[in-house]
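Researcher: For the record, we're logging two predictions in this thread. I'll number them. Prediction 1 follows.
Model: Prediction 1, sequence and structure:
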Amino acid sequence: MEVFGLKDLKTVPDIFHPYTDLLRTSGTPIVIDNGSYQCRVGWASAQKPNLIFKNVLAKPRKERGKKVTELQVGNDITNMEAVRLQLKSQFDRNVVTHYDVQEQIFDYSFSHLSINTEQSVNHPILLTEAFLNPNYCRQFMSELLFECYQVPAVCYGVDCLFSYQKNNPAAQYGLVVGCGYHCIHIIPIVDFKPDYSRSRRIDIGGFHVVNYLYRLLQLKYPAHFAAITPSRAEELIHEHSRIAIDYKEEVNKWADLDYYNKNVRRIQLPFNITTPALTPEQQLARRKELAKKLVEMNARKREERLAEEEEQLNQLLAIQEMVEFNDAEKNIQEALKSFELKDVNDLIKSINQLRSKIEKTKQKICGANVVTDTIATEEPKLKIMKEMPVPKKDEDMKKWISDLREKRQRILDKRSARKQRKQDMAKRRTAASWERMRIISQLAGNKKDKRDDDFGMRDEDWDVYKVINKDGGDSDSEEEQEKLIELEEVLRQYDPVFSENSNEQELNPEEAHQLHFGTEHIRAPEVLFQPSMIGVSQAGIAETIEYILKQFNEETATNLVSNIFITGGCGNLPGLKDRLRKELMEIRPFQSMFNISEASNLMLDSWFGAKEMALSDDFAKLSISVNEYEEKGMEYFKEHFASNVFVPSPSAIPVEESPQTSQTPVS
């Protein structure tokens, strides 16, 4: 069966694109598709975005004694999981709210476009924003662009509407399904204009699909909790997941074992191969080597100590010679004082002690070589049972070891069976507990008279408890435990691959680190159609489309479903188009017609649509200049097909201050 590996792709840092004289002097617009998953930045004259990176930044914690760490943005973060807890985004769902992070993203984008004009970006900006973006958020974005970067003009638009305009420039009616990272927007197009009041948002997106799969796999494989990461869950969604056409029907198929084995995908997790245990010969050689090193180290220490003691002895003997030759009393006292000796008697005593120490040290050094071999070659004594004679031939040895392993396994199986039976008897309504109650009731019914039955006078009377609690306890396992210990000692000595925790049925390391990717590959994407699976009390895509269509008359609804347009990253999930076709067939009247299409490039068509607008002749008219920004306010922008609707914020109502009345303090 095929096993799929994880790519664990590392991002490649973005290059710094050349800032040519033509770009500098022509005032070419910069198109920024500011998505909550990816940011796509490029010159309007480019064939494709110059920069595509994840719209996050990481600020690693400053370690004591080190320099200030630099911010990492987008593709500069080569290992996303290493800084997962330090990741920051400027978005709250799909709305920009953290403008300090947004400023860092702009700095990264403009610096990699190599714009080097001092304190300004002398190029118009076309920037995408959230559908029905609040004026409060837009005014901070305009302030950032005009005040901080000194841009000459800004134009705002909605990403999914740019994508629709690129693929359906002449369509009068349509229904846009914009599948984003944090939410899905369904926008009806009526008479070439978006119907904002009848549009709807679902708070489910690609992030929720990935996060749901991440939690499912961690719950299913708690042993691989650390190996299952959001990045790997995202890779599984991109490479192995799809949307089921009929979710319930496909889930029921997985109950069949043959279908499961045929369709399950085994995902190989990375793992480190553990080194096998040392054979008895290797262990013996290692013991010899360690013993040799230990003896050499002790001998070296003894030799150093012997040299110090001999030097000290020579100095004391020199003082003794001074005493014998009647040297000056003053010199003798100074010499004794230097060795902390009181008189000549202490000197003689110290000399004798040193000579004794030196003699013992020399004896230890001489006997060290003899002890080395006995330490290195000493083997643990093993008491082998009389009924297990050790064979001499290799073939007989293999069969003998195999028999020992089988005996050990039978003992372990009996133990596990007793343990399981004991657990079953503790539970209610199990076969073991019913059997125990049946035996107790029979024993109670056998004795009808109340006379003294002399129970316990014979040893056989106590066997009744063994009948009641058959194979349920550990009272008869002392002999079994001794036998198990002896078997393990013999196996440990003669079986080089034996381990106390070994089991013949144990999976090899590769199989032990595999994920069985079964129903999860359709279960996680199903949240787009059933948000209740993750606790979100909202309608799915199909139900929301049905709700929107009911707000129009039949003619308009028919025109809308004749041009259903899918765009956004989640549209890349296989089966989305077929699932929508099935759902619409159930929603729409009998034999009614509808058509579903998708963007030619689900991820980049929003940038390409914005690029076409930036190169159009009307771009200057649709952008707000610095003068208009200063005159009409920070929240102002100009409307066009792909933009939001401009609704000025209501002016604050002045509150008249009530006249203050003088109050006489109560005495």
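Researcher: Logged. Prediction 2.
Model: Prediction 2, sequence and structure:
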Amino acid sequence: MKLRSLIREKVAQKLDPSAGVARPPGPGALETLKTHLSFAGDPIGSLRKLTDKHGPTAVFRLGPYTNYLFTNPEDIEEVLLRKNDAFHKDTMLHELDAVLGQGLLTAEGDYWRGQRKLISPTLRRKHIESYAEVMVSHTKDMMADWKTGEVRDFHADIMGVTLRIVVKTLFNLELEADYHEVGEQLEAALDYFFERNNTMWRFMPEPLPTPMRAKNKRAIEGLDRLIYELIESRRRQARADTRAGVDEGNDLLYRLLIAVDDEGNKMDNRQVRDEALTFLLAGHETTALAVTYAWHLMAAHPDAAARLREEVDAVLDGRAPTAEDAKKLPYTRALLNETLRLYPPAWIIGREAIEDVQIGDWTVPRGAQVLTPQALVHRDPRWFDAPDTFRPERWLGDLEKTLPRFAFFPFGGGPRVCIGNYFAIMEATLIIATMAQQIELENVSTEPLRIRPSVTQRPLSEIKMKVTRR
């Protein structure tokens, strides 16, 4: 009997790492079933219902996973910063390995630490600020043929311009001819990830053959072909520059190719491919969403749009903004912060405990998933007055200094904070300021904004904007 009991206990712990451990409050069987049914369509709403009912910390089952949900900033600080070594990236994010390989977003352990150390110098502020002219000129090009009264598929336009910017700064290429396919193939590969993780298919074995999986495989093969061609071409140019004693590379790919670790080794093609694709994804998707939602919010709050135009006109006086100007636009930055608060592009950070670890009052057992959702914390009335209200001016005082460290964390935090956060903030600021100089936008969408949360918070349908040229 003792043997049977021991076996049952071991099986239970395998199925549920928190079995036999004191747990935070959480749903019973019926509520868990309801959470399963609602999570795919509305994960943010499902998590909010859990915290409304069970408090700021909760535990619940989703498919085969036991999830610990933390929304207290001090607990999030322990997960992402103070006890970061007790965690790996969560199971869902590692499904991106098929696209991104072992890039900074998905790599773990010593390999990640080595890559982070190797890549950090390529993203120094002086390098990023040298891209300001590219960001502004591509934004102007996007608007060049926009006419007063014209209705635009706005999110598609912004996704296009941020992709062109990242391709230029990453590869030193204009997004034309065959290389337009890079964006299309990346989109196809990510669509598979979004669809899989927004349905119960995420709990099915990955090798299960489906038309969507076949399309994803073709997209990744196409991406690899194009990216490796670019890497080889740029590597040849780097060797030629080295022989000639010149350093003319201002693009990120060039810097990745010449980066040397402590042992004098450079990255091989596979490593460069993984990091290039990671930058390609992170460098346009998240910024595009921030800019899209900023204008969506301004269209609903014309007083905010007017105040933005006043600041831009006063500071820039009609000239193109520079990297230095991006630091002199406090209301623009406040408006961007408020957008990132209400609609953080990366809406949740997940981790998996690789050892038993104490977080706040609770022991998170090895193998459990940990969720720290910006989408909930950023709208917590404990930290923000009228948390669902768009109020950019809240950021013009000392709010950021008085908030708990992880009450506002749109780029994550701790050792794995987004390495490109300065790039993203400068790019979004310059795009918004450049657009405000030339146009006003009115939202004429026939449907209210609906969000499709997966890794990012994408709009579910088109955001239609009517243009008025200034």
